[in-house]
Amino acid sequence: MIGYVTLGVADLTRAAKFYDPIAAELGVGRMMEFDTFIAWGEQGGAPGVAATLPFDGQPATIGNGSMVALQAKDADQVRRLYEIALANGGVDEGAPGPRGDDGFYAAYFRDPDGNKLNAFTMV
């Protein structure tokens, strides 16, 4: 079971500006915060997402093929999350829409550090 996912970032203030409104749309806020680390979610709730300056002091890098999927309650929320991401420095990786014919509806985007995320729901 996944407890949380941590993404390396170069600028924690910029990451907070990106992730705070996404978390708010999902109905959660910051659950932990330190000088080099912020985690969003709900203590004891669903898995959270964290942004961190790398502990080893080396530059943050993105994982090729890695992605964090954020579960939305419906297609409207998928669209809102996508719009929030792009309005806060995110980059488009695939506009909201159905993927395949099994009821999977998703939007894809990258955070300002290049980490890939998606918002999805099953309709």
Automatic annotation (TrEMBL):
VOC domain mapped to chain residues: 1-122
InterPro entries linked to this entry: Glyas_Bleomycin-R_OHBP_Dase, Glyas_Fos-R_dOase_dom, VOC_core
Protein name according to UniProt: VOC family protein
Signal peptide feature range: none
Classification via PROSITE patterns: VOC
Species in which this protein is naturally found: Hyphomonas atlantica
Pfam families noted in UniProt: Glyoxalase (PF00903)
CDD domains from the UniProt entry: VOC_like
